[in-house]
Amino acid sequence: MTPLDPSLPDTWFTRDLPVLRAIARLVDEPKHGGAPYLLGSVVPGSGLAKADVVAAAKALAAAGYIEPLTNHAGDIVRITGISAEARRLAGLWPTPQGEWERLLEQADLRAANAPTDVERDRWRAFADAARAVGPDAGALLMQSLVGGYVPRAR
Question: For a Cys staple, 96 with which of 92, 116, 131, 139, CB 3.0–4.6 Å?
Answer without folding.
Answer: 139
